[in-house]
Amino acid sequence: MRRELLPVVVLLLMLLIARQTLPYVQSDPQIVAEAAEGADLGVELITSGLGGPTCLHWVDEAHLLVCDRDSGSILLLDENFSITTLLSGLDRPHGVLTTEDRLFISEAGKLTRYDFSNYTIGNATILVDGIATGNHQTNAINLLPNATLIWHSGSTCNICDESDERNGALLWVDPNNGQHGVLASGVRNSFDGTWVEGMGYVFTDNGRDWEGDHPLEEVNLLEDGGKYGWPDDDPDHPIPEGTIAPIATWTAHTSVNGIDVRPENSSLPGGDHTVYASVYGSWNTILPQGHEIIRIDFTIDNQGNWQGETTRFAIDLGTPLPLRFHPNGDLYYATFGNDGSLYRIKGI
Q1: How many domains is the chain partitioned into structurally?
Q2: What does pLDDT average to over the chain?
Q3: pTM, 2 dp
Q4: How many percent of the chain have pLDDT more than 70?
Q5: What is the 3-state secondary structure (H, E, C) of the chain?
């Protein structure tokens, strides 16, 4: 290399590194005007100090549970957003759910039920244990209308045939006795899902890395016993024969994660079949992608199938991961890393 070109190469390299790292160290959240559809919306920083937040769950209008993966804790935020540690000593908690007097916590490879009353945790019962972890782990735990738990279980690898069918799958779990099984397979790494009335259970799924523009990140509609393609998909066969196609997609390798259905009372735009999802961003791209929230509006096409129209809703968010609507319709999301911050999007 000619000596006079060296400073230019060094400068370009430094600019590239800065361009890649900047979204992860700071954010200046903005609502995309076109996606707001005329609504006067704002993004507000609520609090920081949440470590590595991986889940948000509203127990009621005044109490929010947060999974802190960094410290292995479940945090409780009250109506003033004061933070207390509800439970510690966990292994990478990624999901939490409350039902009446019970609390369910998803850790790496384990699902545990606790007695839960007046924000006090009691007896622990391990419902499921021993699911392998690797590239990914067990994630969100949600509730189906029939009172069965649905548990998101990531793959141990980028591309492989899993030795345990419970990896790369959605699992059903009996909340009383821990009996469980595979509800859907071929799901490489589904972080979260939400029940959409009139549609069913809608869930995110992040595909394999290192194959260029394949695959697009997916939002899927659950079919009992359905197969969703991984690890048999490839650039020439993105939807292998006998598998179920996504109902919405987004930029490849951007990591679509938290998802929630827009409630009727929300000031955010959308209708009865609108969901919002966080897009974390990825190191598996030449230039930064993601760091945003997307809005997906679902309608039925001419063949009678649900299809989503995806819109970039908020940008420059840093590293958004969990996302949940408050009972009053405001949208909350938390950024993972940099001490973990909680934000709110609402009408001004």
Answers
A1: 1
A2: 91
A3: 0.92
A4: 90
A5: CCHHHHHHHHHHHHHHHHHHHHHHHCCCCEECHHHHCCCCEEEEEEEECCCCEEEEEEEECCEEEEEECCCCEEEEECCCCCEEEEECCCCCCCEEEEECCEEEEEECCEEEEEEEECCEEEEEEEEECCCCCCCCCEEEEEECCCCCEEEEECCCCCCCCCCCCCCCEEEEECCCCCCEEEEEECCCCCCCEEEECCCEEEEEECCCCCCCCCCCEEEEECCCCEECCCCCCECCECCCCCCCCCCEEECCCCCEEEEEECCCCCCCCCCCCEEEEEECCCCCCCCCCCCEEEEEEEEECCCCCEEEEEEEEEECCCCEEEEEECCCCCEEEEECCCCCEEEEEEEC
